[in-house]
Design a protein that fits this description.
Blueprint: E1 2-6, H1 8-12, H2 16-29, E2 34-38, E3 56-59, H3 69-83, E4 88-91, E5 105-110, H4 114-117, H5 124-140, E6 143-146, H6 149-159, E7 166-168, H7 180-183, H8 186-192, E8 199-203, H9 212-219, E9 227-231, H10 236-244, E10 250-253, H11 261-266, E11 270-273, H12 282-289, E12 294-297, H13 302-306, E13 311-313, H14 318-330, H15 332-345, H16 351-366
Parallel strand pairs: 1-2, 1-4, 2-3, 4-5, 5-6, 6-7, 8-9, 8-11, 9-10, 11-12, 12-13
Length: 368
């Protein structure tokens, strides 16, 4: 079986979509499947990520196509895939190239429909481009993979995608969060970033949808010796407002190394992820993988990710967030019970399970 991937984000994206792409490709390639990665370029932090993976071949623009890498990705990579013997082409982030034809089976992963639900978060031109790409991909795909039941519901309700065309395959998080030896570096990491002895962690891009200002508000009801560590890069005016809240008690780490994230979680008393909407909510899973109890929103897909292992509050309810955090701070037995529930819940999203489910999608298309 030979699978082609739109791998731009696997090489160039450092966060959610990039982590998802690397996880899928890495997992599938280790199960005897040939993987051809189509990307307009490989320069970046993850340039060597796939080195040593025998069943992974990287395909980039050559000749005059190097002058038009985005056109190559959107059109010619599809034509090229047919010549490369690709049996299934998987668009890992909302889009598929033109030119694939009917000989190649097509899969697209839809992470969320935030551009339709909250268009005000996007520039006008980006709204148009995203909507066109998403509509084309869902129309031509043989299978649309939704990363949660929430995304599946939105695809049916907001885009009219036939329910029978959609397969829910939950995503996992980066493999480093599943490694115990990475997490136990927490004392070293606390010293590296000069963190307080007790802190709450909040991971995510500093933008309005992630709702960090409400978490800062909740901190006012916690003991003064407990700090808040916000980890993420600022975006727009909201990001600047979050940065302006940094003080002795509130730390904002805008350039934390990704390899340090597991230990940052593991060293925290608890994690808060109070986003107003997510297709899945990866920090919820990352927290559970690091034995860090998590307080999260009671909306969209967060209850799917957290199950009975998370504590929930409305995104605008700072008082309830504070109540949950104080419970975790004051009752160590309760905190340990929450951690144990997280260890059970996280196995629903173990990398090997996600990989097996994805391979099953590919085989279902080729067995038809």
């Amino acid at each position: 079986m030979t699978i082609g991937y739109d791998a731009k984000r696997a090489f160039r994206n450092n966060s959610g979509l990039g982590n998802y792409s690397r996880m899928v490709i890495g997992g599938v390639s280790m199960h005897g499947t040939e993987c051809v990665l189509y990307t307009p370029g490989v320069k970046g932090r993850h340039e060597q990520y796939f080195d040593g993976m025998e069943r992974v071949q990287v395909c980039v623009p050559k000749g005059l196509w190097r002058l038009l890498p985005d056109v190559w990705r959107s059109v010619w990579s599809g034509v090229r895939a047919k010549g490369d013997g690709v049996e299934v082409f998987h668009g890992l982030s909302h889009e598929l190239p033109y030119g694939l034809g009917s000989d190649v089976k097509k899969v697209v992963t839809m992470h969320d429909l935030i551009v339709r639900r909250y268009p005000e978060f996007f520039k006008p031109a980006d709204r148009v481009i995203h909507r066109l790409k998403m509509s084309h991909a869902c129309r031509v795909a043989d299978v649309v993979v939704a990363i949660s039941e929430q995304t599946k519901h939105d695809l049916v309700e907001m885009m009219g995608v036939p329910e029978g065309k959609i397969k829910v395959v939950y995503q996992s998080c980066d493999p480093i969060f599943w490694k115990e030896e990475i997490r136990i570096k927490k004392e070293e990491i606390i010293k590296k970033y000069k963190l307080p002895e007790k802190y709450i962690i909040c991971v995510g891009t500093l933008e309005e949808r992630k709702n960090q200002l409400k978490v800062i508000e909740a901190m006012e009801q916690l003991p003064k010796e407990v700090g808040l560590v916000i980890v993420g890069r600022p975006r727009g005016e909201y990001g600047k407002r979050v940065l302006n809240c940094a003080s002795g008690r509130v730390r904002v780490l805008t350039n934390a190394e990704f390899s340090d994230f597991p230990a940052l979680y593991a060293g925290a008393v608890a994690s808060v992820y109070l986003s107003v909407f997510e297709g899945f909510g990866i920090p919820v899973l990352e927290s559970m993988c690091c034995d860090c109890p998590v307080v999260t929103s009671n909306v969209s897909s967060m209850p799917e990710a957290g199950g009975d292992a998370a504590l929930y509050a409305s995104p605008d309810d700072a008082a309830l967030v504070a109540t949950h955090l104080n419970h975790l701070l004051e009752d160590e037995d309760f905190r340990q019970q929450t951690i144990e529930k997280g260890r059970t819940q996280r196995m629903k999203f173990a990398p090997e399970k996600v990989t097996a489910d994805m391979i099953a999608v590919y085989r279902s298309l080729l067995d038809d």
